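Appendix C reproduces, verbatim, an entry submitted by the partner laboratory led by Prof. M.T., so that reviewers can inspect both the input and the predicted structure.
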Amino acid sequence: MYRIGDYDTNEKYFNQYLEMDINEYETVLCYASLTQVNMTNKRDDLAILNYTKALTIQKRQLPEDHPNIAREKLMQEALQIRRKSLPGNHHDFALTYSSLGLLYKIIMKNELALEYFLKAREIHLASGEPDLLDLLITERGIRMLQASDYRVSSPSLK
């Protein structure tokens, strides 16, 4: 239904599903899906509410030995290798920074996530002809951070 644009029906079913006896993982998926539906329908207040609920549950679930924690180390190593071989404004840096931003958002390190998203956006915009999909992903990450418990006050993000 989501793929064909029937967002109202999606919202109805996700809310009904939340009333059932489901596990926390399924609950997070429902809230994340409701966030997407509400963002598409320009209901930012509900998107923020649902995103915050999903994040709260995820914070309780993420163990210290989660694969995303290991992924962080590997991505930082890849970044160091790129710094040795590529110019600082290379498109690969923007992709790596954006990926790190997404990873830090997942593991609830929102300040670091924002830092890396902003670096990615800066490189994308400085290129003159940014890849629009990559820039969209980066901008969406910034907006999702704004919607979470972490309030971003920078006027450059509005």
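Confidence is low (pLDDT under 50) at residues 150-158. Additional entries are available on request from the coordinating office.
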